[in-house]
Sequence to fold (478 residues):
Amino acid sequence: MIIRCIQKSFMKITVMILFFSVSCLLACIALASTDFRGFNFTDWSSDGYGSAEALSSAIAMEKTGSNTYTLIVTEYMDSANSSAIVSKSGKTPSQESLVTLITQLKARGHKVILKPHVDFQDNTFRGDFVPAKTSEWFDQYREMMNKYAEIAAHSGADILCVGTELKGTTRYADEWRRVIADARSRFGGSLTYAADWTNYDKVSFWDSLDYAGIDAYFPLSYESEPSMAALVDGWMIQRARIDAWQASHGKPLLLTEVGYRNSDDAASKPWAWGDNPEQDDELQQKLYRATAIAWADVPYLAGMQWWEWRACGVEKSVDFSPRNKEAGDFLSSWYSGNIEFEIADCRASYERLKRARESSDRGFFRKFLDFMAGKGFKSDSELKMDLADAEKTFSVSLASLDRAIDLSVSKPLKKSVGANSMSMGSRNFKSLQDQLQALEQRLAEAFQNGDLTEISMLKHEISVLRSTMRADSSKRTR
Fold:
């Protein structure tokens, strides 16, 4: 009796250890793609970064589980016709304030990305800027970037972002390589460039950088009240394109900006600011969650930097900051390892998209066409793709997901030569496939309903079943 009790106790302890080990592994998987996890830490004043208020805000951000601070420093041009790039008193953070905050953050064990921006006094969007005098402008730009490369080196920053969303200038690849070479001669850390989300695949100088970067304001859904499934699907369409692009250059990826306001239009216009939409805290939280699901366990993703966390000042009721909102609560849980996402979460989205393709859902391809073109940036008359082109492009995107997601267990089995009927083993495997399909359908419904308990349970069942199927398949192919 005593021995039996000891055996039972030992078995319970063993199960608990295994459960703990698996839980830790899942948490590691969930956080593996967030080496640089944090926010764009923003201020538009001369001395804000050096203030006690900024340090207090940084410590509050630290409590979310963030480990990286992207410090934004903005210099200005008068208009798109000028070449001069200058600091503005009262608007551009001083060198002293930057060094003070970077030194404080490094002393607390954090990573720092220094990210200079160029804005325009006449409100020209930096992405629309094309220099009138190319050589003159790049001379000015190199001078500015060299200054921040030296600040980054002196203060111990980890990464310098050599440009942000300047898509009208990326055609001048040789000039950009000179910018990068000059920065590298002054700063021994890593370099990246933050490409506009409509332009990342047009940048030709990724080979000169350590990280590829995207300011990822992709629209995810044009529905008025999008479900979680619709938001994840929207991200997976973009993931497919990004997977193929990343494979072409091989650089690790930083989502140098990704973010959503707590507004009712955040899914369709994540880049928007300055207007007066309706407040929607729940949608912001769902968008954060969809982003986490779509980017879980992506080996080439080095991290993501959310927009934004303010160093100083009071946040508006409708704003990008998730601080003291549902999205912030979710992010803290995710970064602390209390919420895990696996590749199976993305697979559920893949299966929905695949079914849409196979059913030739023309309405779906109309939506996809809008995604590809970047709705809000081009009118229908300017589109170069018709629906057939969109369908073809989407098929290519799905092929990329075929490689990104493990679909080996659902591939059809080869029949034995001369076999007139399925073997018992094949029938058993077919039964397991049917079970897997049913579980995945339930998982998709659970995601749509946001039922975390059901999602966790189904992910475990799917994982166990897939392991069984792999083992069965291995036995039959020996």
